[in-house]
Amino acid sequence: MKNTKSIAIGAVMLCGLFSVSAASAATTLESVKENGHLQCGVTSGLPGFSQPDDKGNWTGIDVDTCRAVAAAIFGDAQAVEFTPLTAKERLTALQSGEIDMLSRNTTWTLTRDASLGLNFTGTNYYDGQGFLINKDIGVDDATQLNGATICIQAGTTTELNLSDYFRSKGMEYQPIVFDTSEQTVQGFAAGRCDVLTSDRSQLAALRSKLSDPSSAKILPNTISKEPLGPVVRQGDDQWFNIVKWVLFAQINAEELGITSDNVEDMLKSDNPNVQRLLGTDGDMGAKLGLRDDFGHQIVKLVGNYGEMYDRNVGPDTPLGLDRGLNALWTEGGILYAPPLR
Amino acid sequence: MAEPMLKPPKSAISPITWVRQNLFSGWYNTLLTLVVGYLLVIGVGPVFSWLFFDATFLGSGPSDCTGTGACWLFISERLNFFIYGFYPDDLQWRVDVMFGLLALSFVPQFIERFPGRKWFGLFGLTGLPVVGYFLVPGGNFGLEVVESSKWGGLMLTLILAYIGILASLPIGIVLALGRRSEMPIIRGICVVFIEVWRAVPLITVLFMASVMLPLFLPDGMNFEKLMRALIGITLWQSAYMAEVIRGGLQAIPRGQYEAADALGLGYWKKTGLIILPQALKMVIPGIVNTFISLFKDTTLVLIIGLFDILGTVQSTITDPAWQNVAIEGYVFVAFCFWVFCFGISRYSQNLERKLDTGHRT
């Protein structure tokens, strides 16, 4: 009885091998519309990026990025199902079609973009790796960290960046490796190491978890570039364009001063840029395969980029992150969206 | 002979004598008692005050957790998430019904004189999965569909463990019988199956099911992650179960087989009436051991992004709004697991006593 079952599974797997190339005819947009919701891959819990709140609702900047896409397609920011994914499964889940898009603070690198059959659609958060140090060691700059003991989380690019950085500076260090970020902080708090390294977006939150946050400080150095952004499968350019332009629409909306509060008033604006974004003039949405008021829906339901940032990771949240690189190009940052025309 | 053969039993000893005999019977025992007693006093005190006396139970948010003790408020605020995961609020009654039926099926098993408790147990093994199959995912009888991606927390842990346990026992029996079969092909298949599944760690199985299998399946034919994990867990567990049961089969004396043959019983009657009842009874401790370890192994689904109770807790303890609630979270998970595993273990001891027919030597 059991044996027939295992044989059946083996047979299914074999069949799969042969028919893997048989691509489905429907485009991603069509299948999303048919399902009635967007299937979006997120992290299984990272403060500010995607984490379930006390009601079990997903919140975070990565989550809002998915919601914005749902708003653009359905005019309903709730038409999203979230699939929590670990770092190891995230790309496979996308390749196998289990999810429609991945928004799981994934760093955009050449290898991932070019060799895995994936496309990065943009950057919804510019991150970089930094250091949190114990004030007692009296260091002001990362170049003085020679010989330091450093707490890191295992299996992340953080580990590789750290070794690259120290090698290029000709310095030595003693790594102490932990499994989860929680354990890493505990190790740092218990004095097992002088320095903790992680993405800068997480350092402030980790610092606030210490019993005496003032005993630690964040060094000004950023040792790596971590552009984090949504990812889609290669081979469906329409879907690629949609996810890409949803984020651009949010950035353009902030640049034009359109917020979720004033979006209804802005419908009467004379500014042609605003009119095109909100769909009162032109057929920008139709070119993407979306409704013409997709920009209006995104801003109304999710907000512009700045609102999304402030709500999840901004200065008034426990993460307390300044805009920094993630400010608009007009305000000293590097967010620069192509014109919507 | 008028004298009784045995001396009358000693009268019950007073507590003081007991303490003297057991705790202070010599200088080294006195010393040990004092040292251990001291350690208990200085160790247990802080633990209790952290757990209860200094702990925060009531309040409205993270700011109320100011004491030096545990912040149980965090658990009570998130309890709904820890139990139901993402299951929609207004449909949680369905899961509650399942919890109720589960309790109804198995609590009577602990009460010796409960009328008809056998039927409750039988319902738990047969009816409960059927009710659950229709009730929890919905989709029939006008019930709204709840995708398995929304299941989580304690409910998911119980589903994984329950189905894993229930399905692996019959499969394990069949495999164990197959391995002892005299038909070479059947025996070969069973041996290979058992040895392959038993030789891989559960993490590998889950990882394979979650990451590799979808790549092999054709587009559109994609069964859910939970389903894949369940199949993986069941197959893996049944290989273990088969070996435990084979131990029981081998312990049955040859004479029992021969006696059954002499009575003219066929293979199935012999196995079903003579061999299996004795063999299974003998390996109850081994079977329960495997059940308990499976129950705890379900937490490994964490690595494939399913939110069992440990997963829900781990995803929320990093919430920066709460200060250092990691210990509270893990203590809570440990307590939940202890309750269920201890329950399973007590039940099995109960069962062993009841089925004991005194063949021990």
From TrEMBL, chain A:
It holds the Pfam family SBP_bac_3. Residues 37-265 form the Solute-binding protein family 3/N-terminal domain. The keyword Metal-binding does not apply. One of its GO terms (biological process) is amino acid transport. It comes from Marinobacter vulgaris. InterPro entries: Bact_solute-bind_prot3 (IPR051455), Solute-binding_3/MltF_N (IPR001638). Keywords: Signal, Transport. Residues 1-25 form the signal peptide. CDD domains: PBP2_BztA. This is Amino acid ABC transporter substrate-binding protein. The lineage of its organism: Bacteria, Pseudomonadati, Pseudomonadota, Gammaproteobacteria, Pseudomonadales. Belongs to the bacterial solute-binding protein 3 family.
From TrEMBL, chain B:
Pfam families: BPD_transp_1. InterPro entries: AA_ABC_transptr_permease_3TM, ArtM/GltK/GlnP/TcyL/YhdX-like, MetI-like, MetI-like_sf. The chain crosses the membrane at residues 30-53, 119-136, 156-177, 189-217, 273-292, 299-317, 329-347. GO terms for biological process: amino acid transport. The keyword Ubl conjugation does not apply. Belongs to the binding-protein-dependent transport system permease family. HisMQ subfamily. This is Amino acid ABC transporter permease.
